[in-house]
Amino acid sequence: MEHAPVIAKLLAGIEEHRQTSQKLAALDDFSNYFLSSRQSLSQLPEHKGAHFRQTAERYARTLERFIFVSLVCRRKIDAVTQLIRYSIDSQNAIALAQGSRSLVEHVAVQAEIALALDQFSQKIKGQTDGSKIHDVISKAEDFVNRCYFGKSPKIAHNKTEQALHVSDCIDTLESDLPGITKAYNFLCEFVHPNHGSNSLVSTSDITEQITSITCDLSRPEVQRMAEIALTTLGSSEIVESRGHAAIALLGFYTQRFKQQSSKISNIFAERKIKPVGDGRSKETVLFFPDARDAKESVELWAQYLERRKIKVTDRRLAAMEGNSAYDLYETTQGQLWHRIDYPKDSVGGRA
Questions:
Q1: Could you tell me which of 313, 306, 302, 309 has the C-alpha nearest to residue 335?
Q2: Model-level pTM?
Q3: Rounded to the nearest 10 degrees, how much is the dihedral formed by the CA atoms of 175, 176, 181, 187?
Protein backbone atom coordinates (compact mmCIF):
# COMPACT_ATOMS: atom_id res chain seq x y z
CA MET A 1 0.00 0.00 0.00
CA GLU A 2 1.43 3.39 -0.99
CA HIS A 3 1.22 6.05 1.69
CA ALA A 4 1.52 9.84 1.68
CA PRO A 5 5.06 11.04 2.60
CA VAL A 6 4.18 12.09 6.15
CA ILE A 7 2.51 8.74 6.88
CA ALA A 8 5.47 6.86 5.38
CA LYS A 9 7.82 8.85 7.65
CA LEU A 10 5.60 8.10 10.64
CA LEU A 11 5.72 4.37 9.94
CA ALA A 12 9.51 4.55 9.62
CA GLY A 13 9.70 6.43 12.94
CA ILE A 14 7.53 3.80 14.62
CA GLU A 15 9.80 1.03 13.35
CA GLU A 16 12.91 2.84 14.60
CA HIS A 17 11.23 3.30 17.98
CA ARG A 18 10.37 -0.40 18.09
CA GLN A 19 13.96 -1.41 17.40
CA THR A 20 15.22 0.85 20.20
CA SER A 21 12.65 -0.63 22.57
CA GLN A 22 13.88 -4.13 21.81
CA LYS A 23 17.35 -3.12 23.03
CA LEU A 24 15.82 -2.27 26.42
CA ALA A 25 14.34 -5.76 26.85
CA ALA A 26 16.95 -6.68 29.49
CA LEU A 27 15.37 -4.11 31.81
CA ASP A 28 11.96 -5.80 31.67
CA ASP A 29 13.07 -8.28 34.33
CA PHE A 30 13.50 -5.24 36.49
CA SER A 31 14.01 -6.61 40.00
CA ASN A 32 16.53 -9.18 38.84
CA TYR A 33 18.43 -6.60 36.77
CA PHE A 34 19.08 -4.40 39.82
CA LEU A 35 19.51 -7.22 42.33
CA SER A 36 23.32 -7.05 42.58
CA SER A 37 23.31 -3.28 43.03
CA ARG A 38 20.68 -3.58 45.75
CA GLN A 39 22.67 -6.28 47.53
CA SER A 40 25.88 -4.24 47.48
CA LEU A 41 24.15 -1.40 49.33
CA SER A 42 22.71 -3.79 51.90
CA GLN A 43 26.26 -4.91 52.69
CA LEU A 44 27.68 -1.52 53.62
CA PRO A 45 30.10 -1.68 56.58
CA GLU A 46 28.49 -1.79 60.03
CA HIS A 47 30.52 1.20 61.25
CA LYS A 48 28.68 3.41 58.77
CA GLY A 49 25.61 3.11 60.97
CA ALA A 50 21.95 2.26 60.39
CA HIS A 51 20.97 5.79 59.35
CA PHE A 52 23.66 5.85 56.66
CA ARG A 53 22.59 2.47 55.27
CA GLN A 54 18.90 3.47 55.37
CA THR A 55 19.64 6.68 53.46
CA ALA A 56 21.73 4.82 50.87
CA GLU A 57 19.06 2.17 50.28
CA ARG A 58 16.23 4.71 50.18
CA TYR A 59 18.06 6.96 47.73
CA ALA A 60 18.96 4.04 45.44
CA ARG A 61 15.40 2.67 45.64
CA THR A 62 13.96 6.05 44.62
CA LEU A 63 16.31 6.22 41.65
CA GLU A 64 15.32 2.67 40.65
CA ARG A 65 11.66 3.67 40.76
CA PHE A 66 12.33 6.61 38.47
CA ILE A 67 13.92 4.18 36.02
CA PHE A 68 10.92 1.88 36.42
CA VAL A 69 8.23 4.50 35.72
CA SER A 70 10.31 5.72 32.75
CA LEU A 71 10.36 2.17 31.38
CA VAL A 72 6.63 1.72 32.03
CA CYS A 73 5.95 4.90 30.06
CA ARG A 74 8.18 3.61 27.24
CA ARG A 75 6.28 0.33 27.07
CA LYS A 76 2.94 2.14 26.97
CA ILE A 77 4.22 4.27 24.09
CA ASP A 78 5.23 1.01 22.38
CA ALA A 79 1.60 -0.10 22.63
CA VAL A 80 0.28 3.25 21.42
CA THR A 81 2.52 3.19 18.36
CA GLN A 82 1.18 -0.27 17.55
CA LEU A 83 -2.32 1.25 17.59
CA ILE A 84 -1.15 4.00 15.23
CA ARG A 85 0.38 1.42 12.89
CA TYR A 86 -2.89 -0.54 12.95
CA SER A 87 -4.89 2.62 12.22
CA ILE A 88 -2.80 3.25 9.09
CA ASP A 89 -2.94 -0.36 7.90
CA SER A 90 -6.71 -0.50 8.37
CA GLN A 91 -7.38 3.04 7.04
CA ASN A 92 -9.00 3.89 10.39
CA ALA A 93 -8.84 7.63 10.95
CA ILE A 94 -10.66 7.43 14.30
CA ALA A 95 -8.00 5.04 15.64
CA LEU A 96 -5.27 7.36 14.29
CA ALA A 97 -6.79 10.28 16.17
CA GLN A 98 -7.06 8.22 19.36
CA GLY A 99 -3.52 6.90 19.03
CA SER A 100 -2.00 10.30 18.22
CA ARG A 101 -3.72 11.94 21.17
CA SER A 102 -2.61 9.15 23.52
CA LEU A 103 0.94 9.46 22.19
CA VAL A 104 1.00 13.18 23.05
CA GLU A 105 -0.25 12.42 26.57
CA HIS A 106 2.38 9.77 27.25
CA VAL A 107 5.28 11.78 25.84
CA ALA A 108 4.05 14.65 28.02
CA VAL A 109 4.41 12.33 31.02
CA GLN A 110 7.96 11.55 29.86
CA ALA A 111 8.64 15.30 29.90
CA GLU A 112 7.20 15.53 33.42
CA ILE A 113 9.44 12.67 34.59
CA ALA A 114 12.50 14.36 33.08
CA LEU A 115 11.55 17.62 34.82
CA ALA A 116 11.08 15.84 38.16
CA LEU A 117 14.49 14.18 37.80
CA ASP A 118 16.10 17.55 37.10
CA GLN A 119 14.41 19.04 40.17
CA PHE A 120 15.49 16.06 42.27
CA SER A 121 19.07 16.55 41.09
CA GLN A 122 19.04 20.28 41.83
CA LYS A 123 17.50 19.89 45.29
CA ILE A 124 19.72 17.02 46.47
CA LYS A 125 22.91 18.68 45.23
CA GLY A 126 24.84 20.35 48.03
CA GLN A 127 22.71 18.88 50.86
CA THR A 128 24.71 17.94 53.95
CA ASP A 129 21.99 17.51 56.57
CA GLY A 130 20.45 14.04 56.89
CA SER A 131 16.91 15.23 57.61
CA LYS A 132 16.92 17.60 54.63
CA ILE A 133 18.24 14.84 52.39
CA HIS A 134 15.33 12.63 53.44
CA ASP A 135 12.90 15.51 52.80
CA VAL A 136 14.17 15.82 49.23
CA ILE A 137 13.92 12.06 48.73
CA SER A 138 10.36 12.12 50.12
CA LYS A 139 9.27 14.66 47.50
CA ALA A 140 10.82 12.52 44.78
CA GLU A 141 9.03 9.44 46.15
CA ASP A 142 5.72 11.33 46.13
CA PHE A 143 6.18 12.17 42.46
CA VAL A 144 6.96 8.57 41.50
CA ASN A 145 3.95 7.32 43.46
CA ARG A 146 1.68 9.83 41.70
CA CYS A 147 3.19 8.84 38.37
CA TYR A 148 2.45 5.14 38.88
CA PHE A 149 -0.31 4.78 41.47
CA GLY A 150 -2.08 8.13 41.03
CA LYS A 151 -5.88 8.15 41.05
CA SER A 152 -8.52 10.57 39.87
CA PRO A 153 -8.99 13.68 42.08
CA LYS A 154 -12.60 12.53 42.46
CA ILE A 155 -11.29 9.52 44.42
CA ALA A 156 -8.05 10.80 45.95
CA HIS A 157 -8.42 14.20 47.63
CA ASN A 158 -4.80 14.34 48.82
CA LYS A 159 -2.65 15.68 45.97
CA THR A 160 0.18 13.25 46.77
CA GLU A 161 -2.21 10.42 45.84
CA GLN A 162 -3.58 12.02 42.68
CA ALA A 163 -2.44 11.07 39.20
CA LEU A 164 -0.40 13.57 37.22
CA HIS A 165 -2.78 15.91 35.42
CA VAL A 166 -2.41 15.65 31.67
CA SER A 167 -2.75 19.42 31.23
CA ASP A 168 0.20 20.03 33.56
CA CYS A 169 2.27 17.46 31.67
CA ILE A 170 1.42 19.00 28.30
CA ASP A 171 2.40 22.42 29.66
CA THR A 172 5.79 20.90 30.53
CA LEU A 173 6.12 19.34 27.07
CA GLU A 174 5.28 22.70 25.48
CA SER A 175 8.74 24.01 26.39
CA ASP A 176 10.29 21.15 24.38
CA LEU A 177 7.70 21.07 21.65
CA PRO A 178 6.17 24.54 21.10
CA GLY A 179 2.64 24.33 19.77
CA ILE A 180 1.88 20.90 21.22
CA THR A 181 -0.97 22.27 23.36
CA LYS A 182 -2.74 23.58 20.26
CA ALA A 183 -2.00 20.32 18.45
CA TYR A 184 -3.42 18.31 21.36
CA ASN A 185 -6.62 20.33 21.33
CA PHE A 186 -6.86 19.69 17.58
CA LEU A 187 -6.62 15.92 18.16
CA CYS A 188 -9.27 16.06 20.88
CA GLU A 189 -11.74 17.50 18.36
CA PHE A 190 -11.43 14.29 16.33
CA VAL A 191 -11.74 11.95 19.31
CA HIS A 192 -14.85 13.33 20.97
CA PRO A 193 -18.27 12.57 19.43
CA ASN A 194 -18.73 15.83 17.58
CA HIS A 195 -18.42 17.21 14.05
CA GLY A 196 -14.66 16.57 14.05
CA SER A 197 -14.99 12.82 14.51
CA ASN A 198 -18.08 12.71 12.30
CA SER A 199 -16.07 14.21 9.46
CA LEU A 200 -13.50 11.41 9.68
CA VAL A 201 -15.97 8.81 8.48
CA SER A 202 -18.23 10.90 6.25
CA THR A 203 -18.46 13.89 3.99
CA SER A 204 -21.68 15.81 4.11
CA ASP A 205 -23.61 19.03 4.19
CA ILE A 206 -26.29 17.89 6.60
CA THR A 207 -28.46 20.92 5.83
CA GLU A 208 -28.76 19.64 2.28
CA GLN A 209 -27.96 15.94 2.04
CA ILE A 210 -25.48 13.28 3.17
CA THR A 211 -23.07 12.80 0.32
CA SER A 212 -20.96 9.81 1.42
CA ILE A 213 -19.74 7.51 4.15
CA THR A 214 -15.99 7.26 3.71
CA CYS A 215 -12.60 7.13 5.44
CA ASP A 216 -9.72 8.63 3.49
CA LEU A 217 -6.26 8.99 5.10
CA SER A 218 -5.22 11.47 2.43
CA ARG A 219 -7.54 14.16 3.82
CA PRO A 220 -5.74 17.26 5.21
CA GLU A 221 -6.92 16.83 8.80
CA VAL A 222 -5.73 13.21 8.82
CA GLN A 223 -2.38 14.24 7.41
CA ARG A 224 -2.15 16.81 10.19
CA MET A 225 -2.72 14.05 12.77
CA ALA A 226 0.13 12.04 11.28
CA GLU A 227 2.39 15.12 11.38
CA ILE A 228 1.61 15.63 15.07
CA ALA A 229 2.29 11.97 15.84
CA LEU A 230 5.57 12.04 13.92
CA THR A 231 6.82 15.20 15.67
CA THR A 232 5.73 13.92 19.07
CA LEU A 233 7.45 10.57 18.56
CA GLY A 234 10.69 12.38 17.68
CA SER A 235 10.37 14.51 20.80
CA SER A 236 9.88 11.35 22.87
CA GLU A 237 13.43 10.21 22.15
CA ILE A 238 14.86 13.61 23.14
CA VAL A 239 12.86 13.92 26.36
CA GLU A 240 13.53 10.32 27.37
CA SER A 241 17.26 10.74 26.71
CA ARG A 242 17.33 13.79 28.94
CA GLY A 243 15.72 11.79 31.72
CA HIS A 244 18.21 8.96 31.27
CA ALA A 245 21.10 11.43 31.42
CA ALA A 246 19.77 12.81 34.72
CA ILE A 247 19.44 9.27 36.10
CA ALA A 248 23.03 8.48 35.09
CA LEU A 249 24.34 11.56 36.91
CA LEU A 250 22.21 10.86 39.99
CA GLY A 251 23.61 7.32 39.92
CA PHE A 252 27.07 8.64 40.79
CA TYR A 253 25.74 9.58 44.23
CA THR A 254 24.75 5.95 44.75
CA GLN A 255 28.36 4.94 44.11
CA ARG A 256 29.60 7.51 46.63
CA PHE A 257 27.74 5.70 49.40
CA LYS A 258 30.14 2.80 48.79
CA GLN A 259 33.32 4.83 49.15
CA GLN A 260 35.39 4.36 52.31
CA SER A 261 35.40 8.06 53.25
CA SER A 262 31.71 8.61 52.63
CA LYS A 263 29.44 10.15 55.26
CA ILE A 264 25.94 11.54 55.12
CA SER A 265 27.44 15.02 55.28
CA ASN A 266 29.65 14.60 52.20
CA ILE A 267 27.71 12.38 49.76
CA PHE A 268 25.88 15.30 48.12
CA ALA A 269 28.15 18.11 49.32
CA GLU A 270 29.89 20.35 46.82
CA ARG A 271 33.62 20.76 47.32
CA LYS A 272 36.23 23.25 46.22
CA ILE A 273 39.05 21.32 44.62
CA LYS A 274 42.00 22.96 42.94
CA PRO A 275 42.93 21.67 39.50
CA VAL A 276 46.34 20.46 38.39
CA GLY A 277 47.80 21.56 35.04
CA ASP A 278 46.99 24.45 32.73
CA GLY A 279 45.20 22.44 30.01
CA ARG A 280 47.30 23.87 27.18
CA SER A 281 48.59 20.46 26.06
CA LYS A 282 48.07 16.78 26.73
CA GLU A 283 51.27 16.77 28.81
CA THR A 284 49.96 19.60 30.99
CA VAL A 285 46.32 18.45 30.91
CA LEU A 286 44.02 20.03 33.48
CA PHE A 287 42.35 17.62 35.90
CA PHE A 288 41.00 17.44 39.44
CA PRO A 289 42.96 14.76 41.34
CA ASP A 290 40.70 14.77 44.40
CA ALA A 291 37.38 14.52 42.56
CA ARG A 292 35.31 11.68 44.00
CA ASP A 293 34.01 10.54 40.62
CA ALA A 294 33.56 11.53 36.98
CA LYS A 295 30.40 13.49 37.79
CA GLU A 296 32.24 15.76 40.20
CA SER A 297 35.15 16.14 37.79
CA VAL A 298 32.78 17.31 35.04
CA GLU A 299 31.00 19.72 37.40
CA LEU A 300 34.29 21.21 38.59
CA TRP A 301 35.45 21.58 35.00
CA ALA A 302 32.22 23.44 34.15
CA GLN A 303 32.77 25.74 37.13
CA TYR A 304 36.35 26.34 36.04
CA LEU A 305 35.19 27.44 32.58
CA GLU A 306 32.38 29.60 33.95
CA ARG A 307 34.58 31.44 36.46
CA ARG A 308 37.04 32.31 33.71
CA LYS A 309 34.28 33.22 31.24
CA ILE A 310 35.58 30.62 28.78
CA LYS A 311 33.04 29.56 26.17
CA VAL A 312 33.26 26.16 24.51
CA THR A 313 32.75 25.95 20.74
CA ASP A 314 33.55 22.27 20.24
CA ARG A 315 34.56 19.15 22.18
CA ARG A 316 35.87 15.73 21.27
CA LEU A 317 37.32 12.70 22.98
CA ALA A 318 41.02 12.91 22.05
CA ALA A 319 42.40 9.84 23.84
CA MET A 320 41.69 7.01 26.28
CA GLU A 321 44.58 5.73 28.41
CA GLY A 322 43.92 3.22 31.13
CA ASN A 323 41.00 4.56 33.20
CA SER A 324 41.51 8.14 31.99
CA ALA A 325 39.64 9.99 29.24
CA TYR A 326 41.23 13.01 27.60
CA ASP A 327 38.79 15.57 26.20
CA LEU A 328 39.99 18.29 23.87
CA TYR A 329 37.94 21.49 23.94
CA GLU A 330 37.93 24.26 21.38
CA THR A 331 37.26 27.46 23.33
CA THR A 332 37.29 31.22 23.02
CA GLN A 333 40.72 31.08 24.67
CA GLY A 334 42.18 28.40 22.41
CA GLN A 335 42.44 24.64 22.85
CA LEU A 336 42.11 23.19 26.37
CA TRP A 337 42.69 19.61 27.50
CA HIS A 338 40.68 18.09 30.35
CA ARG A 339 41.20 14.66 31.90
CA ILE A 340 38.62 12.57 33.69
CA ASP A 341 39.75 9.61 35.77
CA TYR A 342 37.36 6.67 36.11
CA PRO A 343 37.84 4.18 38.95
CA LYS A 344 37.92 0.56 37.80
CA ASP A 345 34.69 -0.27 39.58
CA SER A 346 32.80 2.85 38.49
CA VAL A 347 29.27 2.42 37.20
CA GLY A 348 27.42 4.67 34.80
CA GLY A 349 30.06 5.42 32.21
CA ARG A 350 31.01 8.85 31.04
CA ALA A 351 28.83 11.74 32.09
A1: 313
A2: 0.83
A3: 180
